[in-house]
Task: structure prediction
Amino acid sequence: MTTDGYAGGLMDEHPGDLSPMRRVPRSARLVLGTANAHKVGELRAILAAEIPGFDTEVVIGVSDLGIDSPVEDGVTFEENAVLKARHFARATRLPAIADDSGLVVDVFGGAPGVFSARWCGHHGDDRANLDLLLAQLEDVPEHHRGARFVCAAALVTPSGEQYVEVAEVRGCLLERPEGTGGFGYDPIFQPRGHSRSMAELTAAEKNAISHRGKAFRALADEIASVVARGGR
Result:
């Protein structure tokens, strides 16, 4: 875990560069710093399962507020997770959690890595990213198709408190997509010790072993503490 404080908090940082947003509901205590609906669902489920009595109604997604996402120009998952969480905490004056995650392929020296969501050249086209990666792996034998999913999860408060956790799940890459669940590269990623792809697991099975599940469970105590004190 990494914790850092920032004198003066986040509210002193260039408030003029934020895009207009819709009003934050009074009940909100925590912002999920992603516009990816799949991630929002996963994070709500993970937090509800990990924190006793956790009320998902106090959590709001940035897509509900109309806030633009920052440019993810970090060179590590940790840097991108923190810059997103800081951006949304400053914009909403609420604690924000965000993650940056991706696929790290051994034979590619760690790529796609932080470029996983835009591997095909533009952001958010899961199918195009997956198809390109499979084409690039076409002649790679099974014993060289090792890979891991990595997730850096960050919690940042308006006062500048910062917590970061990093987790991963190792596995191998299949030759063709299997399963219809999950998103991203899930259909071609088979977790170590399993005979099914990530996309063939139930949501509960995936959350129990996934990089994102591990990282946010490690943050659960800090998240619960922040929410308990009123989201400040």
In short: Residues 211-228 form the longest helix (18 residues). Residues 148 and 208 are 16 Å apart (CA to CA). The chain has five helices and seven strands. Residues 14-20 have pLDDT under 50 and may be disordered.
